[in-house]
Design a protein that fits this description.
Layout (H helix, E strand, L loop, with lengths): L14 H13 L4 H35 L1
């Protein structure tokens, strides 16, 4: 299955979050699926950048400790 192939999966979220996401997707003029996909991709990108920054900081700290 390629990256662009779509599959359905079910998750459980609080009603208030579901309502907020539905409203936000309408405000953004996006389908609910597209809105959630974009939000998840953005979150994963931010998490990956934070991990890289943390890894780089840890490596720098280790180098400073060894000096």
């Amino acid at each position: 299955m390629g990256d662009d192939d779509k599959r359905q999966f079910n998750i459980y979220l609080p009603d208030s979050l579901i309502r907020a996401v539905k409203i936000a997707s309408v405000d953004a003029r996006m389908s609910l699926s597209s809105y959630v996909e974009q939000a998840l991709r953005q979150h994963l990108l931010i998490e990956a950048k934070a991990k890289r920054a943390g890894d780089e900081a840890a490596a720098l700290y280790r180098r400073e400790e060894q000096a």
